[in-house]
Predict the 3D structure of the following.
Amino acid sequence: MRKIILPVCLVILGVLAVSCKEDKEDKEEKENEAMSRTAPQANSLAESWEAKFCAALPALGHRNWVVVADAAFPLQISPGMEVVVSGEDHFAVLDKVLKALGQSKHVRPKIYLDKELDFVPEELAPGMDACRKRLKGMLAAYEAKPVLHEELIARMDQVARTFRILMIKTNLTLPYTTVFLELDCGYWGPDAEAKMREKMK
């Protein structure tokens, strides 16, 4: 009888050990899947916004906008507004956008900044002075025009009813630091347009 019981016990222990191992592996696999769903890496966000921007750029043209927004910029419901969360540094996003537009032959940006940007004091928003200096340095070649924030919001709302606006949100947490880029034709400037209109009279 003992000779029969011992092998049976060993078989049962072996089955339990294999079952426990499989349960542990299944649990670990499920946990890994859950983590990948609920906590996407910053790199995947960065790839996502860059892929969307690069894919959209050839189709964008005169009267479309690209907006590099600070973290608190409001989500808008206008039909032409597409919002992409980059999870990336504001200046890194702006640099990539400017370089891509600079290499594009069909569009060039007209740039607007919130007029309030010049008046936010350092003591109320620590880091504001350095941010302001860096922004203006990056945009020095573009003659960025200051416009009241509410006017820019209203203008975008109007534009997005007919034309597409691509907004890329960054992780910057300083007020009035959004950069608005209105796209214009890259191969036909205002001087050429004025001459043509004169001939049409």
Observations:
- The mean pLDDT is 85.
